[in-house]
Amino acid sequence: MANVLLLMSDEHNPFYASVYGHSFVHTPAMDRLAENGVVYESAYCPSPLCTPSRSAFMSGRRVHQIQAYSNCTIGVEPDIPTYGRALAEQGVHSVHVGKTHVYAPSSGLGFRETRNAVENMGAGDLEIGRRPFRIRRAAAERATQFGVKASHLRVDLDRVDAAIDWISNTAPTLDTPWTLSVNIIHPHFPHYTSQELWDLYPQGGDLPEYGTDRETANHPRAREVREHFQTDAFTEEQVRGQRRGYLACVTFVDRQLARLIEALKASGQYDDTNVIYTSDHGEMLGKFGMWWKCSLYEDASRIPCIAAGPDFPADLRVSTPVDLHDVQASLFESTGADRPIDWVGRPLQNMPEQDDQRVVFSEYHGHGVRQSAFMIRKGRWKYIHHLNAPHQLFDLDRDPDELQNVHGACAEVAADLERELRAICDPEVENDRADRFIETQLASMSSSGPS
């Protein structure tokens, strides 16, 4: 058995890390973790939005099963069992530090300990209208939120400080396996950073390689996300500043990973602990004119996933698609605990290096779109099933940037992946369920008056 230290960042597009091929971003701690362990090259989130993704990870269930469709928590069942409780009930000392943003407050999640948690703020995001379609108020103002503001780092520094204190002073006293999940907000926008980190990236203020002129950018769902966030109003200076600030925030995350690993070594627990780094979803960062997440394209739905420790071989890269459910399953595998049999996921420790038949699923029902969408990744192929919009199929081996929709040209592949989707859920039924649930949430907001 082994302990687990999990660092989960927020909104880290893996393509902005040297481990995944970025040419100049500084992520040496991730590099060292990869050298000592396994890089999962095709890792995905359950849904490209904070609360749905984190809720799925917390519960081991699909987003549509728990109906945590968006960052609004009105009406979402708060008593869904969590992995923290399931581990604790079997004698594992489960600890959660930092951001929660799930279907229940941290006090109700069942961890043995919770530190520096940020509770859900009331009902959460209220800009969830799909039909009629909601334009986010003052969304374009987000474009100005980047640059030097070192105080913005303080919240995450405090969270990592709390985790290091626990590693140094509490963990050595335990005689049972433990899991420590550290949740920080960077590199999530706003992209404020310190002067030193900002100065690392004078070349970082570049422009996205693919803009709004691409076919993929003009899919109805892509246009809706841009409309919702008013991103077509972003100036070139703002785009460059946001991208530069994002790189600085990624390096900040890398430094927190380094601090946590050094604390493990200093406390004598490094050799008995699996270390996993991942994120809750990605960030479009201007590709196709899109920002933030809310899309099943690779930049928003892909996540970093690197694991090292006694359960993992060194210097291995796994091409089999995985997701956050698999990361969660790894906590049970490491500590020797039994995982509920109806939870989704397979431990990373047991993942084959290459399995072209394994299916990974993601879905999106949240703000910025008029209809739900569902994704299947299987081997080289990625299928996105849309309601009332053209379906999309991408050959990621030949077209990793998703520039060419080959749905019409590869009908047999598309049909196979649609069958895989329907074995998981009925997209029409789930779209209708999401519509009804969101309408109930909106009605509840109206009846309760202004927030």
Describe this structure in words.
With 451 residues, this protein is α/β, with parallel strands linked by helices. The protein has a single domain, classed as Alkaline Phosphatase, subunit A. 31% of the residues lie in helices and 18% in strands. It is built from twelve helices and 17 strands. The protein has helices spanning 28-35, 50-59, 63-66, 83-88, 154-169, 195-199, 220-229, 236-266, 298-301, 324-335, 411-424, 427-448; strands spanning 3-10, 37-40, 43-44, 93-99, 113-118, 146-148, 178-187, 191-193, 273-279, 302-303, 305-308, 316-318, 322-323, 359-364, 373-378, 381-386, 392-395. The chain has an eight-stranded mixed β-sheet with strand order 5-4-7-1-9-11-2-12, sandwiched between helices. A hairpin with a 5-residue loop joins strand 16 and strand 17. The longest helix is centred in the middle third of the chain and has 31 residues, at 236-266. The protein is globular and about 55 Å long. It starts with a strand and ends with a helix.
